[in-house]
Design brief:
Shape: globular
Strand order of the largest sheet: 3-1-2-4-5-6-7
CATH superfamily: Aldolase class I
Number of domains: 1
Number of helices: 5
CATH architecture: Alpha-Beta Barrel
Radius of gyration: 15 Å
Number of strands: 9
Length: 174
């Protein structure tokens, strides 16, 4: 799989301390994108799932909450990221996935299901520069949503995620 880069410690790409994998390649090419260097499908570097899983397992004793998949477009790497998510879930970590796709499109696309079902929190929607919004953590524009995937799958409709300030592992519906 092609990787644009890694942030070994992040507090801005989801709740708690996170390991962030930036995937390479993006079909959306949003105007004003924060990571345009990730658009090129041939850019970045090749890394295997095994290599990434080894790094993640070495971090297990640290105070990480989870892994964030960003990009580029993570849903171009469904199989590989789903395998990494299994490793993270086995360590009791959660998965945040950023995508330019809308949840409604992902839920109806069987090819993308493995990664969607492996995701705990989904930030969906293309970045729209005209709707830039820095007031809500984790999103870049007002059209984007922070979705609790597990609750959304159970409810058969979108359930938004809100971090509970009293419990950094918890969330609640709105």
């Amino acid at each position: 799989m092609r990787i644009a880069g890694i942030a070994a410690e992040s507090f801005i790409d989801g709740p708690g301390l996170r390991y962030v994998i930036f995937t390479q390649g993006c079909p959306h090419c949003c105007k004003g994108c924060q990571n345009p260097e990730t658009w090129d499908y041939n850019g970045g570097e090749q890394m295997t799932v095994s290599e990434l899983n080894r790094v993640i397992k070495r971090l297990a004793k640290n105070n990480y909450r989870g892994i964030t998949f960003s990009g580029g477009e993570p849903f171009l790497h469904v199989e590989e990221l789903s395998q990494i998510a299994k490793t993270a879930h086995a360590m009791n970590w959660d998965i945040v996935t950023y995508t330019g796709y809308d949840y409604e499109d992902l839920i109806s696309d069987k090819d993308k299901s493995p990664l969607l079902y492996s995701t705990d929190i989904l930030i969906d929607g293309k970045y729209i520069a005209e709707l830039k919004d820095m007031s809500v953590p984790y999103i870049g524009s007002k059209n984007q949503r922070i979705i609790d995937v597990k609750k959304s799958l159970l409810a058969n409709s979108v359930v938004l995620f809100i971090q509970n300030s009293q419990n950094t592992k918890g969330n609640q519906m709105i």
